[in-house]
Design brief:
Helices cover 20% and strands 33% of the residues. It is built from 7 helices and 23 strands.
Length: 430
Amino acid sequence: MALRSVAITLILLCTLAAHAQNPAPLSPCAPNSRYLDQCMAQRQYANHVSYSGAFVMDKPEGIGTMSWGDGVTFSGVFKAGRPTKNGFYKDASGKPLTGMDRSQVELAYVGTLEFSSGNRYEGEYRNSKPHGKGTYFYRDGSRFTGQFVDGVRTGQGTEYDRNGVVTQSGEWRLDELVRSDTRVAQSAPPPASNPAPSIIRSNERRIALVIGNGAYTVRPLNNPVNDANDISAALKRSGFQVIDVRNANLTQMRAKIREFGDQLINSDVGLVYYSGHGVELKGRNYLIPVNADIQREDEIADQGLDAGLILEKMNTAGKGVNILVVDACRDDPFGRSFRSTGRGLAQMDAPKGTIIAYSTSPGKVASDGDPKDRNSPYTKHLLRAMQIPNIPIEQVFKEVRRSVQAETKNQQTPWENTSLSGDFYFRVQR
């Protein structure tokens, strides 16, 4: 009895010591809060890094889990945004890693920065400065899309005027263009009023794949089939040959993507539009078939379609203009929380000659729209912007962003990632 009493006493002492060292559990952060302090939340960072746990002064601090794009995770104690020695690392398969230390890896944020000058930045940032990939919007309507280091244009990037025309493109260093790849006509005649862009050819071959998935067994969606039908009709009016698929299972989705890839080889422009459920897992984005029965996190990669497959088809074809439009950022399609999944989708790198358009910014969720509406907010405004003649595709998506932000009161911000070097127009009016 004496030994048992000593054991119980030791257990109680250890329990009291643990409570003395650890503060009371934190409450969840307020929804849509930009600054996280003394609360629990999930956040997506640049470079496919995600974190779930405690925040103090807008940085991970306390107990939490961080996942990197290579599948490595750390679970344990964080201090000032960095993992400490109090925790453990695992690889993508869940196997413990010894000797791993990522305490010196700085986090880069993804989001929007508003400046007192009226300029705006959307993309990766650090210490309230553009850092990584993003787009800087100037008050006069011009913009720069490319790479930044500590707020300075450094790396590959493209500068556009207020009409979306490329003015400078190439490699930048300390805000100066050091190597140009922009081709500018030196002796072109003065443009006529509202001219038709010369890049558009009457014999240009355009192929599109349009997928709308709404009839899910779990959490069906109202609008994706309508979205896909209306986008398909608009693309046909713009000269696209369209491969249509609705409420597809995984086999059907793979078959149609293969068909699209085969036809893209003999085409000049390729476009894929997807409306439905999507989920990010460990930095990869998966489009969800309607018959998916995903009960566990490790089933996502098996039952979902990796969006990277579409980009691989585009990259293999090597054509001049490729467009991927993803209206798939609805929240938690499985009705449960998986440790390594994030809210919304992760940002994907655009292969050469490609623009990727998301219905909302990385790590955020989009609305399927009011049940009374025919289309999602994003697709509704995309359909309208596509009908504006003689504006480049970047300007189309800029119009969509403005309209969606206005309708959702800035709760949803459409996003693009582009490596296009030429111009593309949905409609040309001569």
